[in-house]
Each structure stands twice: as structure tokens, then as C-alpha cells.
Amino acid sequence: MTAAQYVPGWIDLVGAHNVRDLGGLPAAGGTVRRRVLLRGDNLDALTAEDIAVLGEDVALRGVVDLRAPFESPRAAEWFPRLGITWLHEPLADLTALSNADALADQVRGDYSAMYALMLDNAGPGLARILAFLVDGEHTPTLLHCAAGKDRTGITVAVLLSVAGVERSAIIADYLATGERLDRVRAALARNPAYQHLMQRAAASGTDSPPRTPFKIDPRAIHGVLDVVEAAEGGAAGFLRSHGATAEQISGWQRMIIEPY
């Protein structure tokens, strides 16, 4: 599958701009089931109509928030009303959203290096996310960070890889965020938690500062897949080495893949 062939399963909302259902992606022996795994940007500005879409049309049951504590992640007040369970599982953030400047400076402008460092610290959290998905009635689940690109991209890539989704399809899904990046940029500029990012861009005199979260680099997600596929036992072995069980992995594969 190429990026041109991929038709993202967008869920159009007013208050979030990068939400999509991953159903339909090709995998070994089948396709990804719809209404199991969704990805997106932050949900801080959802309208009542947006919430109704997620609650009634999607029947959302789980939300995994990958944001760091300084981004003030929290369970929305409407989650309990809709029976949604919230998991906060922060992944290291080395983009311009991060306040970890010393570490971020090591990978300035190099998304492949950035993703590699993020993945280095992500294994145990990825195993806990897998457990959340399979050990309770938490699907459909929406995974998100701030923009729904970097931390979400890494997490989704690993989860899809362990399920047997074709590598080209994982890359095509990652690239799909580029279609909504301008909308995401504008939304983050309105969010007080991320205004420092836009101030940094303005101070640099460019819309594309060196450590910008508004770049799509397919080499970076290829690098993530290279690491997990090269692990002993492949992506499944990577997750097992960080605490996932064989039963959880096989359960996830059965849950997300619709056989031909």
C-alpha cells in the first residue's frame, strides 16, 4: 500500500483534527477491524456534538493519553458518563513541545534520532498499553498525544506491527497526518498549554523552527519499525522483552485483525 492508495478513516470533529479509525489496513491474513483502534490529537477542545459522535457513533470505551505531565493531561469530565476508561501513559517527548531541552538538543532536526531515543524509553509503557487494550473491555480505544503524530505514531506503529499489519500500510497511515497538520498547528496555537511552541517559532522568524513538531519524516517511522522488527522474535519479541505476555499479544492479534 502506498500513501496515495491509503484512504484514512477520518472522524471529522470540530475540536480535534487528526482523529481516524485504523480499520481497513491490510495485514497478514486479513485486515484491521474497524472500531478497535483509533488515533488522534488532543481532545481538550471537543464540542458537545463531538462527544456525541465519539460516544454514540464510535461507541468509544478507552482513551490512552500519551502526553507528559507538563501538558496537564487529565481525564475529561464526560468520560465516566460514556463509560470510557482513561489511561495516562506518557511517552518521552523530544519534539518542540518538550521542556527537556538538553536531551532534545541532541537530536535537533533529526527525527530518526529523536524517534529512536523516544522508543528506547517507551517499551514498558507500550507493554502496559497493550495490556490495557486486551485485558479489559476498553475498545474501541483512542490513542492520542498533542498533535497525534510523534508519540502516537510510535505507539500505533508498534501495535500495528505486532498485529501483522503490512509495513507499507503502517507508513501510509503515519503519512496521513500530513493531510491535517495545518489544522493541528492552528488548534495548538489556540491551546494555552502549547502557546510557548508558537512563541518559539515567532522568535525564530520562521514557521518551521529546528525542533518543530510539524514535520512528517517517513524515515523516522521506518526506523522505529526497523528496531522492533529486528528484535529477537520481531515486534512480538520486542514487547515481550518489556513485560507483555504471549497471551496478550495473541489476544491483541485476534482482537484487531479480521481474517479474510
Walkthrough of the structure:
Belongs to the protein-tyrosine phosphatase family. This is Tyrosine-protein phosphatase. The structure is a single chain. The protein has 260 residues and is an alpha/beta fold. The chain has a single domain (9-248), classed as Protein-Tyrosine Phosphatase, Chain A. The chain is 43% helix and 11% strand. The chain has helices at residues 48-57, 101-105, 111-120, 123-134, 150-162, 167-176, 181-190, 195-204, 218-230, 234-240, 246-256; strands at residues 9-10, 20-21, 26-27, 30-32, 37-40, 62-65, 85-88, 141-144, 257-259. The strands form 2 sheets. The protein has a 6-stranded mixed sheet with strand order 1-2-5-8-6-7, covered by helices on one side. It is globular.
Rg calc: 17 Å
Strand/helix succession: EEEEEHEEHHHEHHHHHHHE
Low-confidence stretches at least 5 residues in length (pLDDT < 50)? 204-212
Strand order of the largest sheet: 1-2-5-8-6-7
Q: Helical stretch count?
A: 11
Share of helix, binned? 40-55%
CATH fourth-tier homologous superfamily: Protein tyrosine phosphatase superfamily
Would you identify the CATH architecture?
Alpha-Beta Complex
Strand content: 5-15%
Terminal CA distance: 17 Å
Characterize the largest beta sheet: strand count, sense, and whether it forms a barrel: 6 strands, mixed
Q: What's the number of extended β-strand segments?
A: 9
Structural class: alpha/beta
Count of distinct structural domains: 1
Tertiary shape: globular
What's the pLDDT, averaged over the residues?
Answer: 89
CATH topology: Protein-Tyrosine Phosphatase, Chain A
CATH C-level category: Alpha Beta
